[in-house]
Amino acid sequence: MRELSFAQALHEALDIAMEADERVFIMGEDIGVYGGAFGVTGDLVHKFGEDRVMDTPIAELGTAGAAVGAAVAGSRPILEFQFSDFSGLAMEQIVNQAAKMRYMLGGKVNVPVVFRMPCGSGTGAAAQHSQSLEAWFAHVPGLKVIEPSTPADAKGMLLAAIEDPDPVLIFEHKLLYKIKGDVPEGHYLTPIGKAHVAREGRDVTVVAAAIMVHKALEAAEILQAEGIEVEVVDLRSIRPIDTATIIASVKKTTRLACIYEGVKTLGIGAEISALVAESEAFDYLDAPILRLGGAESPIPYSPILEKAAVPQVDGIVEALRNLVKGRI
Amino acid sequence: MRELSFAQALHEALDIAMEADERVFIMGEDIGVYGGAFGVTGDLVHKFGEDRVMDTPIAELGTAGAAVGAAVAGSRPILEFQFSDFSGLAMEQIVNQAAKMRYMLGGKVNVPVVFRMPCGSGTGAAAQHSQSLEAWFAHVPGLKVIEPSTPADAKGMLLAAIEDPDPVLIFEHKLLYKIKGDVPEGHYLTPIGKAHVAREGRDVTVVAAAIMVHKALEAAEILQAEGIEVEVVDLRSIRPIDTATIIASVKKTTRLACIYEGVKTLGIGAEISALVAESEAFDYLDAPILRLGGAESPIPYSPILEKAAVPQVDGIVEALRNLVKGRI
Amino acid sequence: MATLVFIFEIETGLMNSALKKANLGKNQRPFYANTSPAALKEALRKMHLVRMFEEMAEDSYIRGLTHGTMHLSIGQEASAVGITMGLRKTDYITSTHRGHGHCIGKGAEAKYMFAEFFGKEEGYCKGRGGSMHIADPETGNLGANGIVGGGLPLATGAALAIKQQKRDDVAVCFFGDGASNEGAFHESLNLAAVWKLPVVYVCENNGYGMSVSTDRSMSVPNVADRASSYNMPGVIVDGNNIADVAEAMVVATERARRGEGPTLIECKTYRTRGHSRSDRNKYRTKEEIEEWKARDPIPLFEKELLDMGIFKQADIDAVQASVKAEIEDGFNFARSGTDPVPEDVTRDVYAREIA
Amino acid sequence: MATLVFIFEIETGLMNSALKKANLGKNQRPFYANTSPAALKEALRKMHLVRMFEEMAEDSYIRGLTHGTMHLSIGQEASAVGITMGLRKTDYITSTHRGHGHCIGKGAEAKYMFAEFFGKEEGYCKGRGGSMHIADPETGNLGANGIVGGGLPLATGAALAIKQQKRDDVAVCFFGDGASNEGAFHESLNLAAVWKLPVVYVCENNGYGMSVSTDRSMSVPNVADRASSYNMPGVIVDGNNIADVAEAMVVATERARRGEGPTLIECKTYRTRGHSRSDRNKYRTKEEIEEWKARDPIPLFEKELLDMGIFKQADIDAVQASVKAEIEDGFNFARSGTDPVPEDVTRDVYAREIA
Ligand SMILES: Cc1ncc(C[n+]2csc(CCOP(=O)(O)OP(=O)(O)O)c2C)c(N)n1
Ligand SMILES: Cc1ncc(C[n+]2csc(CCOP(=O)(O)OP(=O)(O)O)c2C)c(N)n1
Ligand SMILES: [Mg+2]
Ligand SMILES: [Mg+2]
């Protein structure tokens, strides 16, 4: 296997899907000759032409709806939001149309559309370009929401999303684009809806996704030296959520921490916590359920504040240590 | 005190606020001579004129943004969404502008805008006119989100919202508009951020808001006959949430049920559950935390299915009984 | 509407104007000259079907047999049928909250529509959609829409798919005057123009968006005035005259099929019923309503058909009688349909069941 | 631009054209005839300030002194300053991601802008906003905006507030050619026209929305062509010529203050830098950039001032020197500013602290 960056892995998935299926096309702002704001589409326009790698006017509602309409009419569109924050302009088409169309029509149409959602803070782009809004979409039946953390999963899950008959949003944390990892060649699918135990441990279960998986693994490494064994569950899919894997892990470790970058209140950790608290795993819990989420503020510009606005490794280490040692 | 309907109570709040402060004005679709889709504005256009009770073109993004701009420029706009579902078109202005403007500008502006959000199912209006989307907004720092359950609170909280220097969304469940209750005369404020113990009980705490408070109270009445005493906490405010009141109640009853109409996954009950599970009240819990939320589907049209899509009194009674009797 | 180029259409009976132009008498405008009697009869039948369907639906609603809300298009049938009569099954339409006419025009059957209204499994949406989401993908109707303007981007996308799949179908987007003030209108028409998509935007301008008249909601007198912003033809027609509507539509459709891009057609019409049941008509006068009722598109069409000697009164009576029977049968079929079971509330949310 | 009616403005030095018209020589267009030398000098000073501010900001960015992203308006200074020079402090502007020029034009000081870039508490946004949210409500600047088109509804709303408060101020909305394809453009201009709001929409058409040229994103050649859809004047000016810009703006502003409603002004201009730092200019040619550089608005303005004998070279040199000093001082002020403390991350989210 070769190493690819997360962005390269996504690029490869797009390339493979477009090769394999003429119905697949990509649209978005500056994804053509510019290659995409984060370079994911790169040279694809040269390979597949402007009809299948379409630069769009800046019109998020119209283009999102056009993607939905094209999906219903038998194509397989992939829409890149330049930043997932701009989906605020397109919620109507994503939530009221794409998510509900199949159901409202009694199951008579499919809506195989993929929305690519670059997200997250850490680039100094401030409040309107740094949000982690996956919880909004995971609240909406009819949508699927995925959030890979590794290049291999990015490729396999994007391919799965493109082949899925239902609308899928793939959240791509911007700080992940440059990370590298082994990526299998050719076509493969990483199933939507299955979490992955990224590290085994017996003292505490950390449930995280995307960039927070990496931070959790770093924290686990540090705590290992102190004799604390952290199990890290990489969610990968936010809707559907793989409850079984989470519950099994909590029953083993008896402690749960949910770590996420989105705003703490009603972020994905709220759901993980509630899923466990209502489950058979409740009786196994030896400590309150820890949540570390984003600050109750917009993402600020100042790098000092920006760091303070989302969980960092130091804070995770300390919180997990306290949780395991019963000092919550 | 006289009895007023929920809709009349809201109307009275608008009337009082507009009398008291020239800067207050209302805008929305068909709120003028039509009187509003649910009759809340009624005759206000005749009293205050078309400049202060403004029928708007159908343009949710533009009018929401205009309300925000007017607020920043020193007016006190109230925007009525005809159905809160249409806010999908205006998320950009509500979330990226209204919620963040004060923060992004270093605290140098206020954004005193109120969005009125008729919500909820039960009217046969199906998937695009029946949602309960308060969780989306409660996930967004910079916004306040309230959801009164009684006419008296509707009036007092709407007045509080209008006088609040920050953006407030008031969710008004459509099935509540016709319920009646005592409403004090004149001007008064019901504080934003304070829950209310609507019924005391020692066996289980139910946390609910808006219409679910009424269903919970009905269920409590039924269970009372079986010797089960249900405490019902009326949330009233979803952001900020009155954590202290909830925790105090759970410490007393040792059991928690969260009942809400929004989709279960990542609905407001997820946050309530997680708040308690991470708190000092965790150690008091004698049972898993129950969540009863909306089905994982859009709201269907068929009345049979529509009922099945949200918690009903029967189901609440049964679930609470099982929770208290340890049969979860 | 410079030149009308009609292409022979097996499905619709519209004939090539080049062949027919020679035959135009002074009473024979292109619509009548180029449309077969069978197709004219079918158009009339559909107009009656829409009307009687809605009258029966209204009645059921008043009697409490259906719940929810309902938007009637009574008075607007010429636009719905005139626009759809020349379309193929593989062409798409997106419709509106006021969509019964579009649905029937595109080929739906009344009985499954009634079944939908009664929330039955036999309904077009298996009881999940109701009036506001009535749809029939089988006949190319991608659905009514509860969101004003919601269909504008969808139709644009369907046209994009047609173009990418190199089909010569078209997508037709119905929307109202009120919807034309939504951002979705602007974005969609611009996209379609820039990409030269095979789409026809049909504004049914009935003078009001709910209670707000166009002069209070729009900064220009006509929706079609805005076509110039998108460098596309903007055509205004008498929406109560089916011939006017259909002729403009032929031009627009052929332009789209030839790959020359979108057209905006504005049908000036009127809804004689209130917006929905809660409407107390406080925003318009009785006189205005009566004036428009006098221009009812159905008698208007019938009179032209009789005047031109295309049909006799007996033909028309027969059409009406058959529609009446169809409505009654459909109503009965629907009433005895199957109720959904509560356990199925989450069925059909996803194509593949999720965990 | 039928008639230019200039009203004497204490704040800006623009004078009533009725008084001045008599003095118009053949080289003296209204702008030069009616603007006091002090105001002309101030305009030139601001153009230089914008330019040097951005050059310094760019340099800081390249040296890693600031983080995040940055959009430079180098080449567009005539539009920013020409539009804002006649405004009062109580008038509002909404700005864009490319907003340094608007901010300085409306009256902001470089030192607090630098402080913002360096994320300091002394910055206009106390370090919370950065370049993309630079704002100064004190001088009526409601802020740059990270959302393309985000300011369109906001300015419309500010104008609505002005009207409701019976003030005679105006709101000015800057936006780009790319933004004109957003639904927010359509909705806002329609609202402003229907309600006759005192707002001026200023499109800075620099030919590209990021990498996409206007002929690939717009279905008409000019943004101003769309003004007819809103029944408002649409004016196209040479955005690199401050006199052109300012003259059109006077007409629009006065129209707005008289309560006659909105205007759309399109400034044709060009950004000579890339869209942002990641831009490799693959979508345009070097020649095109060079052509526009030859039409740099600053030398162009200076040449006119010299040609008309309003200033001597020494005056201009003095302006430049003073700006240079201001930039250096501002930079130093900002560098030694106060870093925010992490605990303050949730400060200023709400006006009243919440539970
Ligand atoms: C986005 C959105 N806004 C508002 C409504 C409420 N509403 C339903 S129909 C309607 C009027 C629509 O007017 P128009 O587009 O002219 O269609 P008409 O009803 O006249 O056929 C309104 C305001 C809605 N359903 N969706
Ligand atoms: C809603 C939204 N869509 C996309 C972007 C990303 N983006 C930032 S600037 C820009 C180009 C804007 O073009 P234009 O309006 O012409 O302004 P210019 O950059 O040319 O000054 C894009 C696509 C954004 N910030 N907001
Ligand atoms: Mg209408
Ligand atoms: Mg531009």
What is the chain-wise order of helices and strands of chain C? Answer: HHHHEHHHEHEEEHEHEHHH
Give the N-terminus to C-terminus distance of chain C in angstroms.
55 Å
Detail the poorly predicted runs of chain A: none
Estimate percent helicity of chain A: 25-40%
Share of residues in strands of chain A? 15-25%
The number of strands of chain A is 14
Strand line-up across the major sheet of chain A: 3-2-4-5-7-6-12
Strand content of chain C: 5-15%
Q: How many strand units of chain C? A: 7
**Taking all residues together, what is the mean pLDDT of chain A?**
98
* CATH fold-level topology of chain C: Rossmann fold
In the CATH hierarchy, the third-tier topology of the largest domain in chain A is known as Rossmann fold
Tell the overall outline of chain C: globular
Count of alpha and pi helical runs of chain C: 13
The named CATH superfamily of the largest domain in chain A: Thiamin diphosphate (ThDP)-binding fold, Pyr/PP domains
Poorly predicted spans of chain C: 1-24
The averaged pLDDT of chain C comes out at 92
Oligomer: heterotetramer
Largest sheet of chain A: 7 strands, mixed
State the CATH architecture of chain C: 3-Layer(aba) Sandwich
3D architecture notes:
The complex is a heterotetramer, with two copies of chain A (328 residues) and two copies of chain C (355 residues). Chain A has two domains: 2-183, Thiamin diphosphate (ThDP)-binding fold, Pyr/PP domains (Rossmann fold, 3-Layer(aba) Sandwich); 196-324, Rossmann fold (3-Layer(aba) Sandwich). Chain A is 36% helix and 20% strand. Chain A contains eleven helices and 14 strands. Chain A has helices at 6-20, 44-48, 60-72, 91-104, 134-138, 151-163, 211-224, 243-253, 268-277, 303-308, 313-324, and strands at 2-5, 24-28, 53-55, 76-80, 114-119, 144-146, 168-173, 180-183, 196-199, 204-208, 230-234, 237-239, 256-263, 290-294. In chain A, α1 runs parallel beside α6. Chain A starts with a strand and ends with a helix. Chain C has 355 residues and is α/β, with parallel strands linked by helices. In chain C, the strands form two sheets. Chain C has a five-stranded parallel beta sheet, sandwiched between helices. Chain C has a two-stranded antiparallel sheet with strand order 4-5. The longest helix of chain C has 26 residues, at 37-62. Chain C starts with 16 loop residues before the first helix and ends in a 20-residue tail after the last helix. In chain C, 60% of the residues are buried. Residues 176-178, 206, 208-209 of chain D line the site of one magnesium ion (MG).
